[in-house]
Design brief:
The protein is built from 8 helices and 18 strands. With 336 residues, it is an alpha+beta fold. Strands 1, 2, 3, 4, 5, 6, 7, 8, 9, 10, 11, 12 and 13 form a 13-stranded mixed β-sheet that branches. α2 crosses α3. The termini are far apart.
């Protein structure tokens, strides 16, 4: 157990806690003064006992996470309410921890002056394969990140500009600020929003991006083309085929992944294969002959063999599915 706690504390120091881990760490800290003292010592360094620096760091953590500790007295009531707080505050804790790291200066000595020094490197969020992460940016904008995504916040974010770099998939809810547009740079494309919610799928290695607007207004700049989306509209950008497609869609289909469903509505099979790869955490390859054929259907917690069989039976062509050492290859099935 102690080894796991030390791992969580180390992740906190490295700004790599996910929402579940943040809840676990918060729960452990709430249990006793001894746990909180150990946390202080770890922040100060294993070879140094609790120092003035550690005390200040602990005070920042406690102040920013006070919702986790503000529970009524009484063991039974306290425990019951605390479980509720952890579930609601886990994602908030991750964002708070990240903001704390963003405000600190990595690698610089503490001057003891009590004055915060501005960050010297951008704030970066990452999700591993199979992981999701909810974060709150310094301006109050909310981002729910899907698997294998990276979001980098510019150093000047929230001052004269609001700009981020993004690679992956996420659902964004942008805090309104007409004087300071929110700009996303992703896979050589730019997306400008004011107060807007939308789903963006843009993995640079896949050369295929989809942005689906839920509310507000969004402007996409793809090379020299500038395209404005209205609610319930979707933009598909295929860098390989050099095509841009704008169409009306059911917006809920774009965020099925948040609840564990994959919903395809006229998406190319290469996009289907990529999404299945992230969903099932395996590598799935699609033959280029059928990569751009459009597929419509849904995967809802089926096993991978069940999902592949269903897709084969409902795709425009029947698929041949080959499994080689856990890696799947999809191609057009030969006619009998």
């Amino acid at each position: 157990m102690q080894k796991e706690i030390d791992r969580l504390i180390n992740s906190y120091r490295n700004n790599t806690l996910n929402s579940e881990e943040a809840g676990m760490l918060a729960g452990w800290l709430e249990e006793s003064d001894e746990h909180r003292a150990h946390f202080r010592e770890c922040l100060a360094g294993r070879e140094q006992p609790a120092s003035a620096k550690a005390e200040r760091e602990w005070a920042r953590f406690a102040a920013r996470n006070k919702i986790l500790f503000a529970v009524p007295e009484g063991v039974n009531t306290r425990r019951r309410l605390f479980r509720r707080y952890v579930a609601a505050a886990a994602a908030l804790a991750v964002g708070i921890c990240a903001v704390w790291f963003w405000q600190r200066t990595p690698g610089l000595p503490d001057t003891g002056s009590g004055v915060e020094v501005s960050a010297v490197r951008p704030l970066e969020y990452r999700t591993a394969r199979g992981e999701k992460l909810d974060i709150v940016l310094p301006d109050g904008s909310k981002v729910c990140m899907n698997s294998e995504a990276t979001l980098t916040v510019d150093l000047k974010f929230g001052k004269a500009t609001r700009e981020i770099e993004f690679d992956g998939e996420a659902f964004f809810t942008i805090a309104p600020d007409k004087s300071c547009p929110f700009i996303i740079h992703s896979a050589n494309n730019n997306y400008t929003v004011l107060g807007t919610s939308f789903n963006l799928q843009s993995y640079a290695r896949e050369n295929f991006a989809v942005v689906t607007l839920h509310t507000g207004c969004l402007q996409a700049q793809i090379k020299k083309d500038v395209i404005v989306l209205d609610p319930s509209e979707e933009l598909q950008i295929d860098a390989t085929a050099n095509t841009i497609t704008k169409r009306a869609v059911r917006i809920d289909d774009s965020i099925g992944w948040i609840e564990g469903r994959l919903i395809f509505s006229g998406h190319p099979l290469k996009d289907v294969a990529n999404k299945l790869s992230r969903y099932y955490q395996v590598r799935i390859n699609i033959h280029e002959e059928i990569a751009n054929l459009q597929y419509t259907g849904m995967v809802d917690r089926e096993t991978l063999p069940e999902a592949l069989r269903m897709i084969s039976e409902t795709s425009p062509v029947r698929l041949s599915i080959t499994n080689i050492d856990g890696e799947y290859f999809l191609s057009r099935a030969k006619r009998k």
